[in-house]
Write a structure and sequence with these properties.
Rossmann fold; single chain
Length: 236
């Protein structure tokens, strides 16, 4: 178990990708604090909760709000005593051409995808710097590298995640803290299958495959890697 007794905060851990990541970390021996918003989504983790009761903590928090983000850090420290890893999964998607993108949609993409990553990273860094150790894994996206029709707000927010990743990595390089981002393409989730029923699902990357990459980046096997943007496209 490469992450035995490491403490990880996973934001948005009850969604399709989040569940796979939470499960992967628990199976590697980590202690997991998982943020969520929707109570109903906890049902999808019932079997995980049953098998890992002592190693998992659920925190209901909106991590686009600084006060709730700070509360998340405090509750994790109270339960587990330290924070070694942060995985920023919270995010959202909206499709609209720029002329059809209203201010609410733009702000929503920036808040969910970029602001949440900023606030959570800012909140954990003092603890990682103090212990001279830490791993942060951010979720960007393939469109962050090249904008295209209909994903202007989304791709701009995810490009911001890449820039933020590089910036933080540079700022903490003297503290044995690794900060990296992954760039999935279309993820094979039930929601995406419903939205794109005619697509070739076999080419999509599975949540479990992404989870394995995240676990690697959170482990000491990834020590030489920081400030990187790692494609996780599947076969798409």
């Amino acid at each position: 178990m490469t992450l035995k007794d490491k403490v990880v905060i996973i934001t948005g851990g009850t969604g399709a990708l989040g569940r796979a990541v939470v499960s992967a970390f628990l199976n590697e021996g980590a202690k997991v604090a998982c943020t969520y918003i929707v109570d109903e989504e906890l049902k999808g983790l019932s079997s995980i909760i049953e098998h890992h009761k002592s190693n998992i903590l659920f925190i209901k928090a909106n991590v686009t709000k600084e006060k709730e983000t700070v509360k998340t850090i405090q509750e994790t420290l109270e339960r587990f005593g330290r924070i070694d890893i942060l995985v920023n999964i919270v995010g959202g998607f909206a499709y609209a051409k720029i002329l059809d993108t209203d201010e609410k949609t733009w702000d929503s993409m920036m808040n969910m995808n970029l602001k949440s990553t900023f606030l959570c990273s800012k909140a954990v860094l003092p603890h990682m710097i103090k212990q001279n150790y830490g791993k942060i894994v951010n979720i960007s996206s393939r469109p962050a590298l090249k904008g295209s029709t209909g994903v202007g707000a989304y791709s701009a927010s995810k490009a911001g995640v890449l820039n933020l990743t590089e910036t933080i990595a540079d700022e903490v390089k003297n503290y044995d803290i690794n900060v990296n981002a992954i760039l999935p393409s279309t993820i094979d989730t039930p929601a995406n299958r419903r939205d794109m029923p005619n697509a070739d699902f076999s080419k999509w990357v599975k949540p479990e495959e992404i989870a394995r990459v995240i676990v690697f980046l959170a482990s000491d096997n990834s020590k030489p890697i920081s400030g990187a943007a790692i494609p996780v496209y599947g076969k798409a």
